[in-house]
Amino acid sequence: MAKWLNEAGPEADIVISSRIRVARNLDGFPFPHMLNEEVGKDIMNKVYSAVIEGNETLINNFELVEMKHVDKVNRLNYVEKHIISPAMARNTTTGSLLINEDESIAILINEEDHIRIQCLLPGFQLENSWNLADKIDDLIEEKIKYAFDENLGYLTSCPTNLGTGIRASIMMHLPALNITGHINSILHASSQIGIAVRGIYGEGSEFLGNIFQVSNQVTLGITEEEILKNLTNVGMQIIQKERFIRASLLKEKKIDIEDKVYRSFGILKNARRINLTEAMKLISDVKLGVVLGLIEEASLEKLNQLMAMIQLGFLQKHYKAELTEEDRDIKRAEIIRMNI
């Protein structure tokens, strides 16, 4: 299981994980969507050599994975663990990644850009994630010339990533804000200051289980330090708001909250069939119960893991079979009963 699922980091009652993604391209090569298999392989070899050669620690800790050698179920599993994007999962011609043992560092090769360095840590650890990504970035840049413009900064396939090429994001569990409708004001205010709030799998995805991804939108004309500072400040404001509303709900609507939490816990422990949307909602309720001190039999780490284990890719990997919609709902309920 990935590090961000196994461990509880800072502010774990609300922040599930922190991610830094750095987009880079090699000078003199067309962007990935224009690559043939031969050139894509050449880029993969260059990046692999830049990261691994002369670094005994990295040689032992990183694995090279080519998408063409990964089956559909395991590619989906990588997506569900937030290691690769759905687009990367579909690129079985030139796509590959370097990934470390605890899956906290992944270097995506020939995704939307030639290189995407991703560092994913548990809890609110933007600065630590950035420090890891920055070291890998410097290591590669020592041996590979990046596509760079004096005025525009690092050149990227998508214009919205020009400049620093950095996307910082935090995955947050915000049940109180969502239950009370206050999340709408968060969404509006964030968009006004260059912060995006999206679903669990990024742009266009659903807000399953009251999980929201909060990230910077602006990369051009702003420094790395400013990106981190802005998102950290926004994150802390959201954390404070969520905690305040949680406390208010417990004080003013204690019976309602207790009923919601215990009812959800009971369904999860006994259901024989459950779909993903309902399961995520009920696990979210139980997570809220754990944080409010209503439930002691479960932990946040275990519940975060469970949210990952009930996704389609995880289910099919665990049961070693492609599952029909009915089968997956039955197996999902089984996994939940075994782990809650």
UniProtKB/TrEMBL annotation:
* Motif RDXXRA motif of the pArg binding pocket involved in allosteric regulation, chain ranges: 328-333
Query: tRNA processing: present as a keyword of the record?
Result: no
Q: Which GO terms describe its biological process?
A: phosphocreatine biosynthetic process
The domain of life is Bacteria
Q: What does this protein do?
A: Catalyzes the specific phosphorylation of arginine residues in proteins.
Q: What name goes with this protein?
A: Protein-arginine kinase
- HAMAP family from the xrefs? Prot_Arg_kinase
Encoded by which gene? mcsB
Give every Phosphagen kinase C-terminal domain span. 14-245
Q: Which GO terms describe its cellular component?
A: extracellular space
According to the UniProt entry, its GO molecular function terms are: ATP binding; creatine kinase activity; protein arginine kinase activity
> Which residues make up the binding site for ATP?
17-21, 82, 116, 167-171, 198-203
Q: Which reaction does it catalyse?
A: L-arginyl-[protein] + ATP = N(omega)-phospho-L-arginyl-[protein] + ADP + H(+)
UniProt entry keywords in alphabetical sequence: Allosteric enzyme, ATP-binding, Kinase, Nucleotide-binding, Transferase
Family the entry assigns? Belongs to the ATP:guanido phosphotransferase family.
What Gene3D superfamilies has UniProt attached to this entry?
Answer: Glutamine synthetase/guanido kinase, catalytic domain (3.30.590.10)
Tell me, what controls this protein's activity?
Appears to be allosterically activated by the binding of pArg-containing polypeptides to the pArg-binding pocket localized in the C-terminal domain of McsB.
The catalytic activity of this protein is classed by the Enzyme Commission as: 2.7.14.1
Do you know which Pfam families this protein is assigned to? ATP-gua_Ptrans (PF00217)
Q: Which InterPro entries match?
A: Arg_Kinase, ATP-guanido_PTrfase, ATP-guanido_PTrfase_AS, ATP-guanido_PTrfase_cat, Gln_synth/guanido_kin_cat_dom
Q: Which organism is it from?
A: Alkaliphilus peptidifermentans DSM 18978
